[in-house]
Amino acid sequence: MSVVDLDAGLLQAVDRLAAVPSLLIALDFDGTISPVVDSPEAARALPEAADALRRLAALPGTRVALVSGRSLESLERVSDAAADTLLVGSHGVEVRLDGAAELTLTPEERQRADELREALEQAADPFDDVWVEVKPAGSALHTRRATDDVRERAERAASAAAERFAGLTTRRGKNVLEFAVRSETKGQGVERLREVTGADAVLFAGDDVTDEDAFRVLGETDLGLKVGEGDTAAAYRVDDPQSVARVLERLADRRAALNS
User: Fold this and answer.
1) How many Å apart are CA 76 and CA 226, to the nearest integer?
2) Do the beta carbons of residue 81 and residue 66 sit within 8 Å?
3) DSSP assignment of 211-238, as one string?
């Protein structure tokens, strides 16, 4: 796909965004700049997306951030992000701002997260092709490889195990059911990044239902980009990560030209 295949209104919005003095590009990772793969640890950003982000990060008044439900450790590993890339992990519980990582959990929350992990691992153990991803603030049941029947039974078992813990936040994504002891959202993560960077405008792109929290905090000068199908609060939509890469390339080209 080339830029001529993208919606004309989206291209105009990208060109407007390229001209703002201070710009924040905040992106989900899986399904947005990286294709969804069976093994989460095998995920990697598309080369053309990674290259466009490197070009953007080198431009004046431009910051690049990744905002993910992954743990910060996992996000750092699969993204291979540059040291100056701002990172938000675990839906906002973890952040890396200019090289400094922060985790805001209390000792009591950490203990509850450990107990929750044990309960979910026991609940998932009888089922084939499901696994539990451990995160600092909770755990997520992944069912991407499972049949529909196994997925339904495993999610029921996980939900029953989680009922033992009061006050959990439950998030449902694409073939993932997550339980957390701390309620944070990608919207809160984007708002914090905007405050830290002092950005005049934000580009946020995401593909999952958890990204809707971020789309809903965007303002008139911002650009929300939904990847794939599904209801969304984003103003624009593209089909896949390859299309996101084309958008980033267009933005990098236009912003570089304005700074030359």
Assistant:
1) 23
2) yes
3) GHHHHTT--TTSEEEEESSS--S-SEEE
Whether residue 36 is found in the same domain as residue 156 = no
Judgement on whether residues 237 and 142 belong to the same structural domain of the protein: no
Concerning whether 28 is annotated as a catalytic residue, the answer is yes
The rounded distance, in Å, linking the Cα atoms of 120 and 60 is 46
Q: Is the dihedral of CA 192, 195, 199, 200 positive or negative?
A: positive
pTM of this structure = 0.83
Q: What is the CATH number of the domain that holds 248?
A: 3.40.50.1000
Task: Give the active site residue among 5, 7, 15, 28.
Answer: 28
Total of domains in the chain: 2
Cα–Cα distance, 60 to 256 (Å, whole number): 9
Q: What average pLDDT does the segment 30-39 reach?
A: 92
Lowest mean pLDDT among 135-139, 202-206, 228-232, 252-256: 135-139
Residue 175 vs residue 202, higher pLDDT: 202
Residues 78 and 205 in one domain: yes
CA–CA dist 153, 48 (Å, integer): 39
Whether residue 42 is found in the same domain as residue 57: yes
Token duo for residue 163: 């009922």
At 246, is the secondary structure helix, strand, or coil?
Answer: helix
Ramachandran sector of residue 19 (left: φ over 0; alpha: ψ -120 to 50; beta: rest): alpha
Encoded tokens for 169: 């936040």
Residue 250, CA atoms < 13 Å, CB-side half-sphere: 23
Domain-ending residue, one of 145, 180, 215: 180
Range of the domain at 89: 3-104+184-258
